[in-house]
Amino acid sequence: MLTKKHLLAGIAIAAGIGVAATASAQVKPETLVKQRQSAMVLVAKYFGPLGGMAQGRVPFNAEVVARNAGYLEVLARMPWDGFTDATKDVKSATLPAAFADPKFKQGQEQMQTAIANLAAVAKSGDEAKIKAAIGEVGKTCSGCHDNFREKQ
Ligand code: HEC
Q1: Structurally, how many domains does the chain consist of?
Q2: What is the position in ligand 1's atom list of the atom closest to the CA of 48?
């Protein structure tokens, strides 16, 4: 049963989250870099199998596409908080242009749009359309990496 005590505990936790969000402004630049890279790793984790399906390397499964696309809609918003000016001097694979060129922001938006489209198309169950939508997401990854990430 939800008692008044529970309710107060819930409010205290919510307030704690608020404090954490404000405090994140003071997170160390090295931590921000690690976090943005971690977010990218998860993007790759959930996109990888879909790319494999589009290329015919992984058996097509519309349910997996729909599930992963849903995760990606949220994950694809996460890396960008970590690209603050305070991180410019931290060693990473990010090229300096990312901090100056408006195309970097456009690349983020293109990726998010392509993922939202994939999530919508995934529900149709139409294999050809879904594979094409996966391909469009893949283009946004390489489009941005070509310009803003050190060659691997
Ligand atoms: C708008 C630009 C942009 C888009 C779009 C983008 N990335 Fe990245 N990605 C970067 C940058 C910049 C780095 C380098 C991060 C760093 O080291 O600071 C990176 C790094 C990575 C890494 C390496 C993470 C690590 O271990 O350090 C992976 C994996 C990755 N991206 C996967 C993807 C995938 C998959 C997509 C598409 C679904 C994608 N990225 C879309 C800019 C982008």
Answers
A1: 1
A2: 35
